[in-house]
């Protein structure tokens, strides 16, 4: 038995049939073919699956897909720079510029978490970033460049708001 859900996905109205027990991460990857949201642990420990649900970061590997009905979902595929441009989001640009990634597996979740952190608290400190990223695991970088990237991305997001 499936249920039909309708929600806004990366700015576009979307209607799909889902199994009541299916997870958002499964829906995105397997049914909607949006593979930027990664599944690293299935227990909400690693943060590779973070998406924004109604503007808040959530781990999609433990969220049931029917919870999306009537909601707005933003995935890494929907993260972008200025509307109408081909530019990267300021946080993506900061990660590229400051070497905030290595293998890239954790990067989508890190970016989605970082964008939410910067939106919630525009004047982030290093301690804020380290605390805010506690739910995201990176096995490659040692986090220093990620922290630098998030701080630079937050500054760029603030500057973009002033434009």
UniProtKB/TrEMBL annotation:
Please state every residue range assigned to the domain named 2Fe-2S ferredoxin-type: 3-79
InterPro entries, A to Z: 2Fe-2S-bd, 2Fe-2S-bd_dom_sf, 2Fe-2S_ferredoxin-like_sf, 2Fe-2S_ferredoxin-type, Beta-grasp_dom_sf, Diverse_Oxidoreductases
Keywords, alphabetical: 2Fe-2S, Iron, Iron-sulfur, Metal-binding, Oxidoreductase
Q: Where is the signal peptide?
A: none
Say which domain of life the source belongs to. Answer: Bacteria
- For this entry, the protein name equals (2Fe-2S)-binding protein
For this protein's source organism, the top of the classification is: Bacteria, Pseudomonadati, Pseudomonadota, Alphaproteobacteria, Hyphomicrobiales
